[in-house]
Amino acid sequence: MTQKRKFGIGLIGSGFMGKSHALGFATARRVFDLPFEIDLALLADINATLADRAARALGFRRSTGDWRDLLAAPEVDAIDITTPNTLHHEMALAAIAAGKHVYCEKPLAPTAAQAKEMVDAAEAAGLATQVGFNYLKNPMVALAKQIIVSGEIGEIRTFRGIHAEDYMADPQAPWIWRLDPAGGGGALADIGSHILATARHLVGPISSLMADVQTLIRERPVSTGVAESRAVEVDDVARIFVRFANGASGTLEANWTAMGRKMQHDFEIYGSKGAILFTQERLNELQVYYAEDRTGRRGFRTVFAAPEHEPYGAFCVAPGHQIGFNDLKAIEVRDFLEAVAGGSPKGPDFREGYEIQRLVQLAYRSSAEKRWLDV
Amino acid sequence: MTQKRKFGIGLIGSGFMGKSHALGFATARRVFDLPFEIDLALLADINATLADRAARALGFRRSTGDWRDLLAAPEVDAIDITTPNTLHHEMALAAIAAGKHVYCEKPLAPTAAQAKEMVDAAEAAGLATQVGFNYLKNPMVALAKQIIVSGEIGEIRTFRGIHAEDYMADPQAPWIWRLDPAGGGGALADIGSHILATARHLVGPISSLMADVQTLIRERPVSTGVAESRAVEVDDVARIFVRFANGASGTLEANWTAMGRKMQHDFEIYGSKGAILFTQERLNELQVYYAEDRTGRRGFRTVFAAPEHEPYGAFCVAPGHQIGFNDLKAIEVRDFLEAVAGGSPKGPDFREGYEIQRLVQLAYRSSAEKRWLDV
Amino acid sequence: MTQKRKFGIGLIGSGFMGKSHALGFATARRVFDLPFEIDLALLADINATLADRAARALGFRRSTGDWRDLLAAPEVDAIDITTPNTLHHEMALAAIAAGKHVYCEKPLAPTAAQAKEMVDAAEAAGLATQVGFNYLKNPMVALAKQIIVSGEIGEIRTFRGIHAEDYMADPQAPWIWRLDPAGGGGALADIGSHILATARHLVGPISSLMADVQTLIRERPVSTGVAESRAVEVDDVARIFVRFANGASGTLEANWTAMGRKMQHDFEIYGSKGAILFTQERLNELQVYYAEDRTGRRGFRTVFAAPEHEPYGAFCVAPGHQIGFNDLKAIEVRDFLEAVAGGSPKGPDFREGYEIQRLVQLAYRSSAEKRWLDV
Amino acid sequence: MTQKRKFGIGLIGSGFMGKSHALGFATARRVFDLPFEIDLALLADINATLADRAARALGFRRSTGDWRDLLAAPEVDAIDITTPNTLHHEMALAAIAAGKHVYCEKPLAPTAAQAKEMVDAAEAAGLATQVGFNYLKNPMVALAKQIIVSGEIGEIRTFRGIHAEDYMADPQAPWIWRLDPAGGGGALADIGSHILATARHLVGPISSLMADVQTLIRERPVSTGVAESRAVEVDDVARIFVRFANGASGTLEANWTAMGRKMQHDFEIYGSKGAILFTQERLNELQVYYAEDRTGRRGFRTVFAAPEHEPYGAFCVAPGHQIGFNDLKAIEVRDFLEAVAGGSPKGPDFREGYEIQRLVQLAYRSSAEKRWLDV
Prior knowledge:
The structure is a homotetramer. The first copy, chain A, has helices at residues 16-31, 48-58, 69-72, 88-97, 112-125, 139-149, 187-203, 312-315, 325-340, 350-369, and strands at 6-12, 37-44, 62-64, 78-81, 101-104, 129-131, 156-164, 206-214, 219-221, 229-231, 237-244, 249-255, 264-271, 274-279, 285-290, 300-304, 373-374. Chain A is of the alpha/beta class. Chain A folds into 2 domains: 6-134, Rossmann fold (3-Layer(aba) Sandwich), CATH 3.40.50.720; 136-374, Dihydrodipicolinate Reductase, domain 2 (2-Layer Sandwich), CATH 3.30.360. The first copy, chain A, has a 9-stranded mixed sheet with strand order 16-15-14-13-7-12-11-8-17. Chain A has a 6-stranded parallel sheet with strand order 3-2-1-4-5-6, with helices on both faces. The mean pLDDT of chain A is 97. Chains in contact: A-B, A-C, A-D, B-C, B-D, C-D. Strand 16 (300-304) of chain A pairs antiparallel with strand 16 of chain C.
C-alpha cells in the first residue's frame, strides 16, 4: 500500500450543507479507496468564532472568518462552496483564479450567464468541478440508469418527476433569503433544479419545454410573529412540460408548499418494455416492472439497496440495511476526487450545472411568455 | 313497508360496461333503500342471439337485437347506454325523445357540440340523466370531498391528478375502435375524462388550461399478428396545466401506455392546512395529512373505508372488508334513481358530462395551438 | 343455450352474513356460467316481519319467521345458514335430514364433536356442503396456492399467519353473544378459524401444535353505558406454533383487540426458492419473491388481481379494477353449486370445517395443558 | 469553548461491524456535542498487515496484529470489540482487568454464564459498558418508546416482533462459523437477540416464555461448490411466546432463511388506546394509530423521521431526508461516551446484554424441554 498524496479541502460554510459535506468527507475516506488522502485543511465561515467552533466540530485543522484566506492557502487543493447560491459565482471564480478545484452546492448560480462564466473559467483552467445534486449519487438512481441504459425497459417513452416538500407551506413562515428574487427564483430554482438534474441524468437532454410557475402565498411576515409583511416575488410551484432529445416526453414539477411532503423527489419512467418508480422518501428502494415477466406474475418489484448496487456495498456488506442522506454526499465526494484524479468524471460538473440553470431560466421565461421554448 | 313503484330499465350493450351496470342494478337493489323497485326489463345488443344470452346471464326479463325497441317499450322508464361513445348521441337523443330517463357511459359524446345537444334535450324534457364517471362514487372520494368542503385541510392550493393504465402500451396491440378519431380522441378522451371529472368534483370548475397531447405509438398492426399497419391519429398521453376558478392550480395527465399501471387513477390535493392522497389501485384507502397534528406525530393517515364513510356501510357493516369496482356502479345506480325520484341530484349528469367534454375538446385545441385557453 | 335446472335457495338469517350471501347469489348468477339457475326461494329470519322485509330487500320470493319451514319447502334445494354458530348444528342436521344440500357460515359448530356429527350426516346422505371461509375464495389466494403447488417458490419452509381486527379492542364495548363460551371460544374460534383455514388450504394438514390463548379484557359492561359488568371467559388473543405434515412449521395468531387493524388476515410463506406475502386489507394484491430473479433485480413483486387470475376475469375484464369482499361470496356460491352438480368440490366442505374445528379445540386444550399436542 | 479531554478508542476487528463502528465514531464526533474528544488511537486485527490497512482506511492512528496490545496502551480509554461473539468474553474481561471501558458487539457472549462474568467484572470495576444492539438507537424507536411511556396508546396489551433475513436461506450456502454451536446458537442467538432487545426496550422485562426452535436446513456444503457436507446443529428459525412483567403478552420470531427478507426487524405494539408499527426495512418511518382520532379520520399515520425526533436533527436539519444504518452506530457511540462521562446511561449495557443472553438460553431450554419457563 503506497502512501497517497494529500488533498486539502477548504470548506466555505458550515450550515446544513456544510455539515453534510464534512460528514461526506469523513465517511468517504473510510468507505472508499480514494485517489487521495483527504486533508480537512481549512474551514471558512462568516466570522472567526463561528468558523472556529465549526472547524472543531467538523474536524477541520484550521479555520478563518474570511473565505478569501482559502485562496492563498497552499495546502488547499479544492474549495468546497456550501453558501447561499448568490455567493457561488464570486467564490467559484476566485477559487478557479487561484487554481483550486471547485465543489459547489446547487443551484450553481442565480443566472445561467453567471453559471456560464463559471464553466468557462473552470474549463479554461483545466480544473475539476462538481455540483451538489446529491440525489443523483444514490445507488438506486444508478440502478435506474443502468436499467435504462441496458435497454431492460425498452425505449423510454414518458417521464414524470416531482420535487415537493412543505418547508414553505405555512403562510406564517416568515420571508427569508430563499425568497429573494436575486437568488434566481423560488421553488423551481431551489428544488426544481434537482428534478431537472434527475431528468437529464436518466433520460437525457431536454429539447423544448413549456412551463407554468406560480406564487401561491403572495406575502409573508417579515419575521416570525410580526404583523408587517413583505411581498413574495418568487414561485412556490412550477410545472413543466418537456420534450427530450431522444423523443421521450414528460412533466416536471417543483413545489415547496406541498403540505405533508418532506422529501418527495419522485420519478416514474415508462418504457416500451417496462417501468421504474422511485421516491426519495424511501431512498433505498427502487421499483421495477418488466412487461416480459410471465403472465400472472407481473408486478412492480421492490428492490432494496444491496451490495450489488454499487457503491452501496462500500457502506454495508449486507442488503437492506440502508444508507442515509449524508452518505449520498460521501459518494459525491468520491466522484469529485476521482474527477480531480483524472478519471472519467461522473458529474454533475459545472457544465451540467450550467445546463440545468439554463433550463431553470428558460422555464421562467416560458411561463412568463406563456409559450413553448426550444432549449 | 309500502310497495314501491316499479322502475323499468332498458340496457343497451352487454360488454364490459353493460355487465358492470347489470351487477350495479342487482347489488343496488339489495344494499340500498331505493326509491323504486328496479325492473330489469329489456336488454338490447347488436343481435338477437347475443342479446338473449346476455339477458339470461344478467337477469333481464326480455331481450332484443334492436335497441330502438327500448324506445317504444312502456315498461322501460330509463335507458342505460353502455355502447361505444360514438353511439351515445343518437341513442340518448332518441331515448329523451321517447321520454325516457338516461343513464349513459362516459365520455358523453365525441364532441362537446353533441354533448350540448344531449344536455339541452334532456333539460328541456325534464328528464334525469347520469353519466358513468364511476370513480366519483367511491366512498373514499366522498370522504375526500367532505374533508375539502369542511375546510379541514384549509384552502386548496394545488392538485395533481393522473389516470394511467397500460392497455395500449404494447406497440403490437392492434388498431381498435378506441383509436378512431371519430370517437373524439385517444387517451385524453377515454381516460383523461375521468381525471377531469375528479378534478372538477373535488376542486371545482377549471377556468383556463394549457395542454400537451402526443401520439407515442404512431402505427399499429391492423389486427393481431398481421404485418399490415395502420396509422394512429389519436393521443397516447396528454398533460394539462389547469387553473381552477377558486384560485387553485394543478396538473392532469392521461396515459394509456404507462407500462405496469393497471388503474392509476390517482390524485394529490394540497391545502393550506393539510393534504389528501388517493390511488384507485387501492380504492378502499384514503391518505390524509393534518398540519395541525402535534409536532412529532404528523404523518399521512391511511384511512380504510368503513361504515362511517357513506355508503360503504350499505355493503358491509365491518370496516376494512373492501368494496370492489362493480360496487361503485351500484352507488351510481342509486344516485341515478334518486335523481329520477326528484332528490337533489348527486350527478354527474349530462350537464357535467358536457362540461367535461368541453374541457377535453379545449385541451386538444390548446395542444394544437400551443397556448393557454380560457374555458 | 339449454334451459338450466332451477336450484332453490333457502336462506336462514339476514344480518351481516345473510346479506353478504344474498349479494353473492345475485352476483354469481350474473358473472358465472353456473350449473343451475338460482332461485332465491325462501328466506327465514327470527320473525315474520323482519323476514318479510329482508326478503324484499334481498330479492327472495317468499319469507318466513320459522326456519323449519325451509325443511318442508319442495322448491328449496339447499339451505344456507348464516346464523350465530351455536345454531348451525341443529339447523344443518335438520336440513340434511330433509335432504337439502347445506351451505353454512363458519365456524362450523362450537365443538368438534358437533361438527363431526354434521360431517357424518352430510356424507351419509350424499349431500353437498360448503363452509363460509370466504377468504379462501380470493383469486389472489388461488394464485398463492398455484405458486406453491407449481413449486415456483420451492419447498415450503415456514408460514406466518395472523387474523387481527379491533372490533373488541375497546374495553367499554359491551358483552355480546360472541363472548359466550357456549359458542366454542373467543378470538381463536371466531377469526382464528379463518387463518387456520388459510394455513391448511395453502400449506396442508397440521400435525402438531402448541397454543397460548389469553383473555386481555377480563370484564365488560353488560350493555353499552351500563356500570354493571360481566366477566369475559373467552380468549381475546391466541397464538399457535404449528408443524405441518409436509415438514413446514409456522405460527398463527388471532387477535380481536389489535387496535387499528380492520382486516389483517395476513400471511407470509417462505419457501426454498421464493416467498409470498398477502394482506386481506389489500385483497387484490399478492406479493411474490423469486430467488432466481437475477442479481440486483430481486424484490417482492406486487401483483394486482387481473383476468389471468381466475375467476377475477368473470367480474371484470380489466386488471387492477378490484373485486370486493362480497364478490368473494359470489365465488363461494359458484363453488358450492359446482359441488352440488357433482364437479370436483373445491371446498371447504363440512369435513374441512370439522378439521378446522378440531384444530381450534386442540389449541384451546394445548393452551390449558401448556403442552404440544399431536393432531 | 473549552478544550475537551481526549478519549482514546482501541478497536478490535475491522470487518462488517468494525467498519461500521469506525464510521460511527467519525460521524458522532461531527454531529454530536460529545463529552470527549474522540481519539481513534489503535486498531487491532488478526495480523499486522490487515490491521495496518484497516487503520489507514478507517482513520486510526496506529495498528497492531495483537489485540492484547490495546490493554497496555495508555492512550486507549475504551476497547471496542467487534469480533465474533465467541471471543467477546476473553477480550472484555481482559479489557476490564486493564481498566478500560468496553463497547462490545452483540450478542454479548455464547452463554449467559460468560455474560454474567462480564457484567460482574465491569460493575465491580465501575467501568462503562455498551452492547451493540444498534436498532435500539433509531430515533423512530425512541419515538415508539416515548409514545408508549407517555401513555398515548394506553396500556400495552400485545407485542409481535420478528427479525428475519435471508442470508442463510440458500441450502447451498456453505457451513460457516455462525453455525458453530460453540457460538451459543443459530438464528435466535444471532438475530433473535435483536428482537428480544427491542421487546425489552419497548415493553419491559419478560417474565416467562415458551419457545420452538428448529433447524430447517440440516446440512450444508463444507465450502462453496464442494460436495462434502457438514451437519447443521443450530437453529434456522425460532418462535417464542412471551409474557411481560407488566401483563402484556406477545410473540417473537427469528428466521435467517426468510427468502426475500433483507432486514425485517419489525414490531407491532397494540395498546388499549392505539398502536405502533415499525419495520427496519424503512427505518426512517414509524406508523402510529390513535383510537381517539375522530371517527372517519382514523388510520395509521406514517411519521417520517424529522428533527423533532431526537437525535435525527443532529444529522440533518430537514425532515424526511433519512439517516442510514451506520448513523445508528454514531448514536450508539454517543450513548456510550455519555455513559462513560457519568450521565444516566441509555444502555444497553453489559447487564442488559446479559439479560438478553439469559432469555436466549432460556428459549433454547424451553424448546428442548417443550415447556414454559419462568425467567
